Amino acid sequence: MHIVIIGGSFGGLTTAFDLRRLLPRGQHEITLISKERRFIFIPSLPWVAMGEKTIADISFDLERPLTSKGINFVAAAVDRIDPEARKVHTDSESYDYDYLVIATGHRSANEAVEGLGPFDGPGHSLMSPPEAEEASETWSAYLDDPGPMVIGCAPGASCLGPAYEFLFETHHALKQRSLCHKAPITFVTPEPFLGHFGIGGFGKIRQFLEGELEDRDVRYHTSAEISKITDNSVEMEDGTVFESRYSLIIPPLAGVKPVAEAEGLANPKGFIQVDPNYRHKDFENIYAVGVAVALPPVEETPVPVNFPKTGHMTEQMAKIAARNIAADILGGEKTSHDLMAECIMSMGDQGAHIVADPVRPPRNVSELSNGKRWLLAKKFFSNYYLWKMKRGATRSPKWVW
Q1: How far is CA 63 from CA 8, 9, 34, 68, in A?
Q2: Does domain 110-252 have CATH number 3.40.30.10?
Q3: Which of 168, 179, 174 is nearest to 215 (CA)?
Q4: CA-to-CA distance for 374 and 365, rounded, in angstroms?
Q5: How far apart are CA 134 and CA 128, in angstroms?
Q6: Where in the chain is the domain with CATH 3.50.50.100?
Q7: Is 180 a catalytic residue?
Q8: What are phi and psi of 96, to 5 degrees?
Q9: Which residue in 343, 347, 354, 375 is the catalytic one?
């Protein structure tokens, strides 16, 4: 059997390492294809945007860890997927597969808002390493001549946490430099309330975030629908205009081009509909994990807010998919479980630890705690995760996410 995995981030790497442990080496070949040569710890991108970390600090080269485990590594972008022929095409090679795992992540749908940027408009983002590096460069220049700024999320966004992290990080940096009076911050979000996060909120997260923003004199607007970003303003659909010298807005996401264009593979937004085992609804030999998966929102909101997919949730999907592919090949019980979310949000001088289990309400666990210890834990975990994944270890102590 030949299993091809597309994507070298949380989903692809976890699936590859778990499958290698589950399947006999001499009988089953595993190939991972990634357009990026390096694994990048995406949750640390807000620190890159703030100039506190570099991409080199939060990444490692994929080839050695994969090949040391007997996994083929191909550094190439996938151009086309042919589910009927069971082939994956790059610009130079084609790969036949018996099973395919799609862990391709997302494309930032910047076309949703005029001027969203950063490379096709004046807005900034941090949804990819190049965007985070661009945000860092322009942030440094902004500090030399600060002014009003707008931070937030576009309609239909699903990865909302980084906007909150960047808000807290920027305020902390401004406070350290005694610049808060020169740089009023406005936070705009499509969420019906702070801390909705696309999962309907949980516990006392709403009250916590409202208090934290109010303590920092940050104006916030919920059910906000951004329509345009210019060099000096952020415009809303209702005609409201916020002055802004620096605008960082999280975009909505869409599926990557080869997934979106493959006939019968994805929905109109380019995401893949799967069953509880993360198997494609129509192609029994295709699995999908992570951001590539189509997950419906928990509820309808006045302005669209989509369901989030964190690195922790992606790991859970990858582990389920790997076990089910192994069960397909070797025989055995299939597995599935409800996703839970555990993460640490950096808040500049402290952190907040968040647990929602399961992610979709109603929940058995809704926990929130904050303090400097959680900021230290987040910094530790980013280094620990890179260390363990370099060694092909996909198990983590429960608390660390």
Answers
A1: 10, 13, 10, 8
A2: no
A3: 168
A4: 19
A5: 10
A6: 2-106+255-337
A7: no
A8: -80, 145
A9: 343
Looking at the DSSP assignment, which residues form a beta bridge with residue 306? Answer: none
Residue range 174-221, pLDDT digits in tens: 999 999 999 999 999 999 999 999 999 999 999 999 999 999 999 999
> Residue 228: helix, strand or coil by DSSP?
strand
Query: Which residues, including other chains, have CB under 8 Å from residue 329's CB and lie 6 or more apart?
Result: 1, 23, 28, 99
Which residue intervals of the chain bear CATH 3.50.50.60? 110-252
- Residues of the chain under the 50 pLDDT cut: 399-400
Tokens read off for 16: 């590859």
Residue listed under structure tokens 């970390």: 53
Distance of CA 283 to the CA centre of its chain: 26
From 33, 40, 58, 159, active-site residue: 159
Read off the pLDDT of residues 58-80 as tens digits, 9 standing for 90 and up: 999 999 999 999 999 999 999 99
Question: What gap in Å lies between CA 54 and CA 45, rounded to an integer?
Answer: 9
Residues 138, 132: Cα–Cα separation, whole Å: 10
- pLDDT at residue 238 in the model: 97
Distance (Å, rounded) from C-alpha 263 to C-alpha 231?
Answer: 40
Catalytic (active site) residue 153: no
Regarding pTM above 0.90, the answer is yes
CATH hierarchy code of domain 2-106+255-337: 3.50.50.100
Output the six-digit token pair for 145. 């001549």
